[in-house]
Amino acid sequence: MTHITVTAAAGPGNTRRIITEDPSWSLSVIPPLSALSLQHIVSNYGNNPILEKLLPKHKTKVLDLISTSLPLHVTANLITYEGYWRRCCSERWPICDISHYGSSWKRLFFERHLENLIERFIPDLTHTGPICEAAELSKDYVKRLEIRQLLPPVRLEKKEDEVEEISDSESDAGGELPSMDHFDLNLIALSLCGLEELHLVYGVKGCGMNFEWNLFRFTKRDCSTLAATFKTFRNLKVFRLHRSKVDDEKVRVLIRSLLDHPSLVHLDLSHNQISDRGARAVGKLLNQSQLQILNLCNNNVRPHGAQAIAYALSKNNNLSSLNLRLNRIGDEGGQALCNALLQNTSLVTLHLGSNELSEPTVTVLSQVLSQNTSLRSVSLSSNRIGLDGGKQLLEGMSENRTVVEFDLRLTDVGQESEFFINQVLRTNQERARLRAQQKQVSPP
Predict the structure, then answer these.
(1) Using one digit for the tens of pLDDT, what is the confidence trace for 351-383?
(2) Residue pLDDT, tens place only, 240-266
(3) Distance between CA atoms of 285 and 256, rounded to whole angstroms?
(4) Positive or negative, the Cα torsion across 252, 239, 236, 305?
(5) What secondary structure letter does DSSP report for 231?
(6) Distance between alpha carbon 52 and the CA centroid of its chain, in Å?
(7) 253-280 burial string, b = 16+ CB within 10 Å, else e?
(8) What is the CATH number of domain 289-444?
(9) End-to-end CA separation in angstroms for the chain
């Protein structure tokens, strides 16, 4: 409640003057004209984005106050101030790590915004316009897309009598088919010519009790449309398609489109259904590309597929990492790969865990360890190596000067062999540390 006092003033008429007792009242609380102008600019920025003509201190103040809900077509190309995009990101996502986005808040916002739109797209139910518009506005900022789910069309349940009436001719004509099985990246490919990384999963997150196998299906139509995007994504360096039931037929279609790709260096097809025919296609890609990292973890590659990859590896001097964990290459495939490493001089990391390997493979690998000077990391975990195999590995490692990581978990090589192998590893690690120090000290 405001307290007032009434004071009798001197003079004719006995005029009274009322004075408010508000200790916080002051003429200084009246905002200056510049502040009023800035408030007007902030409240009307969406209709009249005045920014470049302002003084630097006024420009920063406006950017700190304007709403983060303004349309992207207004803010995308006009605002480069990182503080504004940081506010946009923090309000939408509780966890934001810009180290994965080139230390740019603006790039983080546009990449995650576009990813969210694509992940929520349902064919023939969601309009493609907002995604195409967002892609066009994002073209200068999006370098990587990590799509964690792609939703299939909504299948409406039909009555039994309606299902029986559907004829083969109608099915062939495509009258009952959706326009696309999952979101078609060709719709935005031209806007994202500078894309460098693409990670895809053709499946649904958190389907819960609504689980159906149809929710996890990479169709032939998906495959052909995805393969077509590689003609546009010529700057793509990393391509990852995993947990999508990619089989031999589909991987051959994809590889055919990647054979002449100028930029691809990292291919991840892990957790799929690729077997020997698909592995042969991958081997052909190794012969005709600049691929440096290949991940075929958890597929169905058997000896013949491993032999095809081994043949390519023996002639390849670009690949630095090969992951074949959780396949079935057996000793026949394992020996082929190890023989290839007697000629290969580029591979640094080799993962052959859980591949039904045993002593015959280790016999050749021991020779590789004593001769190869490029390998730094080897994994044979969860294979039946045995005590004799452990002794052969120790014999090879005793002459090795470069391997600094060797995973022998669940191989039954014996404590003695494992102990002495670890001693060699520690020596190699110290040697590698000293080399790294010398490189830092010595002038370029």
Answers:
(1) 999 999 999 999 999 999 999 999 999 999 999
(2) 999 999 999 999 999 999 999 999 999
(3) 8
(4) negative
(5) T
(6) 36
(7) bbbebbeebeebbbbbbbbbbbbbebbb
(8) 3.80.10.10
(9) 76
